[in-house]
Amino acid sequence: MNLSIIxxxxxxxxxxxxxxxxxxxxxxxxxxxxxxxxxxxNSPDGTFIKVSEKWKGNPRIRPILREKxxxxxxxxxxxxxxxEGDKVxxxxxxxxxxxKLIPLLVNITDYxxxxxxxxxxxxxxxxxxxxxxxxxxxxxxxIHYTLKMQTTDNLSGYYCFxxxxxDGLPVERIFFGYGDYYIRFLYVMQRLKHPIIEIPVxxxxxxxxxxxxxxxxxxxxxxxxxxxIKFGLWKLK
Length: 237
Prior knowledge:
There is one protein chain. The chain is α/β, with parallel strands linked by helices. It has a single domain, classed as Spore Coat Polysaccharide Biosynthesis Protein SpsA, Chain A. The chain is 36% helix and 17% strand.
């Protein structure tokens, strides 16, 4: 199997099966050998049940229920550990990340170890709030200059990578928290000199459900993450 797509969910019953269907049909059309892993943190809205019922008996769709542990980053790590593909794609489950980019992400990682989507390269953007777009862009500039990052969008979370890049790494030191894990992931990958290419993405309005992101809380979480890396309070080992 050459591809695992990991979809972390919490209260995404409105959109998740439509997203899986779109991804499934596209990957079949491109003749990829793939699996889609849905890691659900025991959603009260029945997300896990809806996925399990819809795709019962289909070995390519693997719903996983986490009843005790919760959190975006650890859900992603759980999915990575359960995955069987040589390449892994991580994406949001509300159509904010357009599925049409998946074939490009897969093909481009034949040449680069990591392909990361960016709102801030030519062709990228957001169809949602202009305030969030420019606020995120300014904060990414802060990350870029503070940590000397080469990447322009360190908060994207829509990416594909060869799973081998994690071999031998203490991944629990990277995959914890919320979207801040992606700052650590890209920071480590760049320090280890793994080739990363950014491709443009235009964020869409979410389809169904409510955003779990509290902007104020996440700003302080991300800001704290950057400072901890900068001043050596967080280290990989």
